[in-house]
Amino acid sequence: MSLIQKQIVIVGAGPQALFLLREYSRIGYLVTVLGRKNEIAMYSRYGIKLIVDTEEDLIGKLTDLASKNQMQDCIVASGFYLSFLMKNFPGFFTLFNVVPKDKEALSIFLNKLHTYQLAEEINCKYPKSILLSQLNHDTDYRRFKFPQIVKWNQDIYLYEKPAFKTCLVHNIKEVKNLYQTLGECEKQSLVMQQFLGADLQNNYSYGAYFDQGNLVAGICVNEVRHYRSGVSSVVEEYRGGFAEIIEEKSIQLIGKTLFTGFLDVEFKIFNGEPYLLEVNPRPFGFIRIMKLKYPDLIPYILGECVSNQKNSKQVQWMNVLRDMVLIAKNPRKIMHMFSVLFNFSSRTFDVWDIGDLKPFFRQVKR
Questions:
Q1: How far, in Å, CA of 157 to CA of 190, rounded?
Q2: Per residue, what are the HEC states of 74-85?
Q3: How many whole angstroms separate alpha carbon 105 and alpha carbon 253?
Q4: Is the pLDDT score of 365 beyond 70?
Q5: Predicted confidence (pLDDT) per residue in 120-142, tens digit
Q6: What residues does the ATP-grasp domain cover (predicted)?
Q7: DSSP 3-state assignment of 222?
Q8: How many CB atoms lie within 10 A of CB 25?
């Protein structure tokens, strides 16, 4: 009798997908990855790669995979892909056994304003926000304290690059000028919100895996250095004074839903208190730190391991190439970079893997 190899599909091919591709392949899964040609996981030695050129091509390839193997396990490893599939391919969730799930939880967490409504139920603070589409000639702009920051309330683009990720506006004139450059769909998808400060070292995240709203494994981290807004170069496990309340509010918030999967909950410390920024309901950029904190996490999630032992050391994560660029601009941080780099026992890297080198060198080339 022959054994049937377990299979899984991963949608998206960024660093998060690369981590999952390696982990699942190494425990015996046949992994199929769908992504654009230049995404980093497409250069791994592991898995079957299906190059996607257009949004229609993505739906077509997923439909074809489903016709060959119904209700196959599928992980969506990108928020952009997840938002697109939720809106444009609702049948996706009946063709595959999709993680993250469930759809009701996703509809909340893929929308900042919906997330903030849920945060009200657990008395969690968040920045005051308004949809740009709600601004009009009758708006009393005096009620807004400037500067304000404009962000995407929900993703509307997959392969098309938006004009900006965030935009700081310093006065009413800048708001009105920005408003005039936007289409109706963009106005309905962007929020203007209270600006909580430019110091990115006050940004904290709670990265975790939940099963039907119940915590399986989690870690509170401080995003120590940023390559650019929303992209970290060094992340460290955080055990300081805000760690307990960040973990508590994250568990309470997700516990209001039946969410299953990896996610990270982002906070910013403002006036001595944590403010919820957003929930990203998909594998997060620094996901490999979870492997260092919980070495058996993936087998445990799959029911192939009976324990989920937690590493007691304070762990770190680094993207070497990004951090080298930052250190070149600010050499005063070089000693900290070396301390992380040579912390062999409790530090992990983003893309580097001695058993799968091509993605790292592709990153160097880019």
A1: 12
A2: EEECCHHHHHHH
A3: 11
A4: no
A5: 999 999 999 999 999 988 899 98
A6: 116-306
A7: strand
A8: 17
| 103 and 76 Cβ atoms separated by less than 8 Å | no
- Ranking 208-222, 224-238, 291-305, 346-360 by mean pLDDT, the lowest is 224-238
Alpha carbon distance 237, 246 (integer Å) = 13
DSSP state of 233: E
Joined together, the tokens standing for residue 354 give: 């001695």
Distance CA 18, CA 363 (A): 12
* Residue 208 three-state SS: strand
Give all domains of the chain, ordered by start, each with its CATH number.
7-99 (3.40.50.20), 128-194 (3.30.1490), 200-353 (3.30.470.20)
Give the rounded distance of the alpha carbon of 56 from its chain centre.
24
- Judge whether 298 and 24 are in contact, CB under 8 Å: yes
Pairing between strand 72-76 and 7-11? Answer: parallel
112-120 vs 243-254: helix crossing angle, rounded to 10? 100
- Residue environment code for 97-107, b if the CB has 16+ CB neighbours within 10 A, otherwise e: ebbbbbeebbe
Measured distance CA(239)–CA(242) in Å, rounded? 8
Question: What distance in Å separates the CA atoms of residue 172 and residue 174, rounded to the nearest whole number?
Answer: 5
Tracing tokens 């955080």 back to the chain, one arrives at 238
Instruction: Identify the CA nearest to 96 among candidates 5, 9, 211, 13.
Output: 9
- What is the number of other CB atoms lying within 10 angstroms of the CB of residue 32? 20
Q: How far is CA 314 from CA 103, 247, 342, in A?
A: 34, 16, 14
